């Protein structure tokens, strides 16, 4: 059986995969000295605009609540977040950044920026726009496995916005 896929598309897919692995490796290397993972930084970013409950945060960053729970336990243990049981619904926790969490997020943002190449020949805006179109065109195999761009600030739903512009990563 032969593929009808354009050879340029196939080569672009391979290049995209290599680029993603290289960026992830650079991010991991930049965050390791801070004791953070990409998943932890994504959770911290989701809380940057203010507290949310765990389900709201999971929906915002496109991960399962149970997966997020493991990340939040680690972040709480390191003092980066607090989780407070809600009086109205004892099953729910209000999750918010601590001062240490805000400092860790600022350090992570700086470390990640320093990890990215600063090539003046790359049009980052065009690349971001094209990647967003590409990601949006890929159907998810099942709803809970969706890998989608984080919402732009105006799409957060509660009006507080967010600065997330990546894709989720549940690995620790």
CATH first level: Mainly Alpha
Which fold name fills CATH's third level, the topology? Arc Repressor Mutant, subunit A
Reported for the largest beta sheet, the result is: 3 strands, antiparallel
N-to-C SSE string, H for helix and E for strand: HHEHHEEHH
Let me know the number of strands.
Answer: 3
Beta strand %: 5-15%
Short description, anyone?
The protein has one domain: Winged helix-like DNA-binding domain superfamily/Winged helix DNA-binding domain (Arc Repressor Mutant, subunit A), CATH 1.10.10. The protein contains six helices and three strands. It has helices at 7-31, 38-47, 54-61, 65-77, 99-115, 124-137; strands at residues 52-53, 81-85, 93-97.
Write the layout of secondary structure elements.
Blueprint: H1 7-31, H2 38-47, E1 52-53, H3 54-61, H4 65-77, E2 81-85, E3 93-97, H5 99-115, H6 124-137
Antiparallel strand pairs: 1-3, 2-3
Explain what the structure shows.
With 172 residues, this protein is mainly alpha-helical. It has a single domain, classed as Arc Repressor Mutant, subunit A (Orthogonal Bundle), CATH 1.10.10.10. 51% of the residues lie in helices and 7% in strands. A three-stranded antiparallel beta sheet has the order 1-3-2. Helix 2 packs across helix 3. The longest helix has 25 residues. The chain is globular. The C terminus is likely disordered.
